[in-house]
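Can't paste images in this forum, so I'm doing it all in text. The chain is below; anyone willing to post the predicted structure tokens underneath?
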Amino acid sequence: MDYNMPSVPGIDWQQAHEYLPEKDILMMVLQEVTSTSRKMIEDLFTSRDVVAEEPSEEAFRDYRIRVHAMKSTLRSLGADLFADALALEEAAARQDAGPILGGTFPFAERYEALMQALSRLVEKSAGTPFEKDAFTDGIRTVREAMSAFDIVVMQKAMKNICEMDLPGELAAGVEHLTELCRDLDSEKVEEMCEMLLDQAEHLHS
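Text version of the structure:
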């Protein structure tokens, strides 16, 4: 069983499913963690600076608490970055400032990039509910508009398609179709439209 979620580099949705088996709960978690990620990063930087200035037991404890919260989030989402958070937490546990001082910024940079990718996913999921007929009509419109080189109609149709809450098996193809439309590659647009129409026809069958 899976969520039919679009692929996100660094995220294993199958692993996430073990912690968050319901998609509605997953989306609530994603909404929460992406909306608070900037504050968590800022707090981690502050804690890291305290460790640098005064590496006391209390400073390491505070850092450990903050990175532990981020680690828990990453684990529940099946994120590869979990291992980095765990390494920082273990460094704090043994009061080893070196890995903290050298590793916090690279970790935070990757964490922020991941949260931005997940935030885009959350925003997209709030779009138009997926309906097969509307999707296939849209794909046919794109194909016909590309054939007639009607760029305005094609762009409008693609915009409507991209605003749908697409199943995972269609999302990657639509993303590729968007690139092909941008390049005005009529032959490959035709091929991708046919592929998407076939995938939609056999969806969940």
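The first helix runs from residue 13 to 19. The radius of gyration is 22 Å.
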